Amino acid sequence: MLTSRKKIIKEKGATPDEFEESVAQALFDLEVGANDLKADLRDLFIVSAKEVDVPGGKKAVVIFVPFRLLKQFHKVQQRLIRELEKKFSGKHVVIIAQRKILQRPGRKNRAGVQRRPRTRTLTAVHDAIMEDLVYPTEIVGKRTRYHVDGSRLLKVHLDPKDQANVEYKLDTFATVYKRLTGKDVTFLFPVTAAAE
Question: What is the model's pTM?
Fold first, then answer.
């Protein structure tokens, strides 16, 4: 029997909550209903899902997928997000890989002989989350703005060729990134000389 339970596999066999079940059901419905996505979605599943409040009274759906399936999700991401946004009645949908941050080796936690891989550091994981968040659009520049009170603001410049497709989601990207990492960020498009 085909069921939506095969579309969500949580770590250590934990049971998914109601919202995660609804996201898994939407993915399952797309696999069964959409002929162009059927073959691509057959082997894909999610790990978890969250709903995030975005300024302006909207909500965003954050879907976490296993890191090893991220490339396969990227192949169908634009069509998949378009269909999921229709199913969730206008909520913005973002897909992010589930990554692990390993603790810095110190005096108390010398966990074996192996060094910590660079991809498991806090900085690398936060940068990768940002890349996943804005995926098909490329990040062309980053600036860190330090305020007098010591707070930091990260300004991320996105590729201007995707401005028409992504501009309405910039607040969603900033809010989701803040919720996942705790860092303030603004996404914007660089001003080109041709616009003057």
Answer: 0.84
